[in-house]
Write a structure and sequence with these properties.
Elements (H helix, E strand, L loop, with lengths): L4 H15 L3 H18 L11 H9 L6 H14 L2 H13 L5 H16 L3 H18 L4 H12 L9 H20 L10 H29 L16 H23 L5 H21 L4 H19 L11 H30 L3 H31 L2 H10 L4 H16 L5 H18 L4 H14 L8 H9 L6 H24 L2 H10 L1
């Protein structure tokens, strides 16, 4: 009797991760062990391992994944420069007079931070330190307040730009290509990061709307759980509101607008976001002396417009006077922008911001890329043992057809989210099941957004939801772990409701990609 090594391999991986071994080492170690067992039992061809070098090189040269460290840098800069605190304080004073207003302000700020940072941990910790004590002082139900903070922080995974959507776009694009190859198609379509960003925008805003409607209903049905602020400080002036909200909004427009408008690739837009966040941090460190920062930001904006209107090609033999004038103006703008960036680096370094930002960016990026690289080793061995064929056969023969297969996969992702990180699920499970689902007729872009919302929910599901741990570390002592866990349960239900809406009305996810691409 031949042992089902592919099934044993997957079970060994889940078991080792649950025991607590580092994911990257677990993926590579389990793959190596079962490759050896497969070779000894005649079920695995070791010649397949010759493709590992090619896979590693493909990862290092992947243009899509270059955006990850830049977006991570952008988010951590905004976290370390304490811009989130200004947003929370201003929004709390603005919406405080409303019943449930503090909770609504946390949701809106969470959405704004999601679109400008995309870092779940930073958002949850900032809100746990600032907004949660304020809500408790004003009589909010501790469970409701904890649920609001945890859930608002996870918006950074579904509202673009986010590392989840970048990883998902790469995984789903590969799955889409595999599905087309298996169907015998030689003209291959792909999925871009821009399409996934566009598809995630409306569903993300839909979730924000669902949260706000829930809070309004909760405050109306049970006023004691979400009262208005008892002692309201002076309402923020328009100038104060603009100073807190306008910089992140402009950064969001610059990043997402350039991607959705087809002006820049995701990697180029990520670099724009990184520089914009650095200039914002410099302005906050300066305490008033911001002329060069504003000049640098204006120079970068004008440079983008100028190059879009009249590309500079001075190496051409037919370059005329206009070309040289435009080239000279572009040179001046570049020098101004470079001076502003140099000043921003100097200020953030002296202010103790730049060093921890670089360290955190390197750590997060290394973790993500190590997981992706070792997951490719695991998937290669798993496929060599026939695991992909077993998965395809299982889903294809499932009663109920494509809808039942999709429901099973979504349920599996939801359950695995209780124990595994979104990166692990994305790079281990999705390459196995996504090609089969796409071959069954499911739209790959719509499917990506359904999976993204499901993976976002994994941040909330006990016992290993990361948002729960982040809040546990930042919450006041009077908040118990049980209150945090019970507080997120209604919001998990709202997440499932959001997935159901996208399932029933796919156009919510597919409208913008069709319009923009």
């Amino acid at each position: 009797m031949t042992l089902p090594l592919d099934l044993l391999m997957f079970a060994a991986l889940i078991g080792a991760i649950l025991i607590g071994y580092p994911v990257s080492f677990t993926l590579a170690g389990v793959a190596t062990l079962f490759a050896l067992l497969g070779w000894l039992t005649g079920q695995f061809d070791p010649g397949l391992l010759g493709a590992l070098g090619q896979r590693a090189f493909g990862l290092m040269t992947n243009q899509v994944l270059i955006a990850i460290p830049l977006f991570v840098f952008m988010g951590i800069v905004l976290e370390k420069s304490r811009i989130a605190e200004d947003l929370l304080e201003t929004a709390g004073r603005l919406f405080g007079p409303l019943r449930g207003g503090l909770g609504i302000s946390v949701v809106l700020v969470g959405a704004l931070l999601a679109a400008s940072t995309g870092i779940v941990g930073a958002t949850v910790v900032a809100m746990g330190l600032i907004a949660l004590p304020t809500m408790l002082r004003n009589g909010y139900d501790p469970k409701l307040a904890s649920g609001i903070v945890c859930t608002s922080g996870t918006l950074g995974q579904i509202i673009p730009p986010s590392t989840l959507l970048i990883i998902l776009s790469d995984v789903m694009s590969n799955a889409y290509q595999q599905a087309q190859f298996r169907e015998g198609k030689f003209t291959i379509d792909t999925i871009s990061v821009g399409q996934i960003f566009a598809a995630a925008l409306l569903p993300g805003l839909t979730l924000v709307g669902i949260y706000i409607l829930y809070l309004l209903a909760k405050a109306w049905l049970n006023p004691a759980s979400a009262p208005a602020m008892k002692a309201l400080d002076v309402r923020p002036a328009r100038r104060e509101i603009a100073a807190a909200i306008l910089p992140p909004v402009l950064l969001i427009i610059a990043v997402l607008g350039s991607i959705l408008g087809g002006i820049a690739t995701p990697s180029e837009a990520a670099s724009v976001g990184a520089i914009g966040a650095l200039l914002m941090a410099s302005a906050r460190q300066s305490k008033g002396a911001n002329r060069l920062v504003f000049a640098g930001a204006a120079a970068l904006g004008l440079l983008a417009v100028l190059i879009g209107i009249h590309p500079v090609r001075l190496q051409r033999s037919d370059a005329g006077l206009t070309d040289w004038l435009v080239g000279g103006l572009a040179t001046v703008l570049v020098l101004i922008a470079a001076a502003a960036i140099a000043q921003a680096l100097h200020r953030t370094f002296r202010g103790g911001v730049l060093k921890p930002v670089m360290t955190s960016t390197m750590s997060v990026t290394a973790m993500i890329f190590a997981t992706i690289l070792t997951a490719s080793v695991f998937s290669l061995v798993f496929r060599g043992l026939g695991g992909d064929l077993r998965v395809e056969e299982f889903l294809a023969n499932m009663p109920g057809g494509p809808q039942a297969a999709l429901l099973f996969v979504m349920a599996l992702i939801f359950v695995l989210g209780f124990f595994l990180d979104f990166v692990e699920i994305s790079v281990i499970l999705l390459p196995l099941v996504a090609p089969v689902l796409i071959m069954m007729g499911h739209d790959p872009v719509w499917l990506s957004i359904l999976i993204a919302i499901n993976l976002q929910t994994s941040f909330l599901t006990p016992p290993f939801g990361f948002s729960l741990f982040y809040l546990r570390g930042a919450a006041p002592k009077e908040i118990t772990t049980g209150q945090i866990y019970r507080g997120v349960v209604p919001f998990i239900g709202l997440q499932i409701l959001g997935m159901a809406l996208i399932w029933l009305w796919p156009s919510v996810a597919t409208f913008l990609p069709k319009l923009a691409f």
